[in-house]
Write a structure and sequence with these properties.
By secondary structure, the chain is an alpha+beta fold. Helix 1 links the parallel strand 1 and strand 2. The chain is globular.
Length: about 90
């Protein structure tokens, strides 16, 4: 599953953080619908405490869940990507 979701940012930090984390939560949730056992997941995110809470919620769903900044990202962008390897279905 690949998610490149990003809301229209308003410039209001709290509102933007909430929108980003909600989209990320939705993307992570879709893994349980579409991703096969052992599958991979990639999702764009922006740094915030809310995003870290969402990632922590789903960390156990993967053998490994890393954060990375792509070389192709603009220097002015603070976007990063979560890369989940080895999806595990919950009980």
């Amino acid at each position: 599953v690949i998610s490149d979701l990003s809301p229209h940012l308003s410039g209001v930090r709290a509102a933007d953080d909430a929108r980003v984390s909600e989209l990320l939560d939705t993307a992570f949730h879709l893994n349980s619908v579409f991703l096969k056992e052992g599958g991979f997941f990639i999702a764009k995110a922006f740094p915030s405490n809310d995003v870290e809470v969402v990632a922590k919620k789903y960390r156990k769903s993967f053998e490994k869940l890393d954060r990375t900044i792509l070389k192709s990202s603009r220097n002015t962008s603070n976007e990063f990507y979560f890369i989940g390897k080895g999806f595990r279905r919950g009980d």
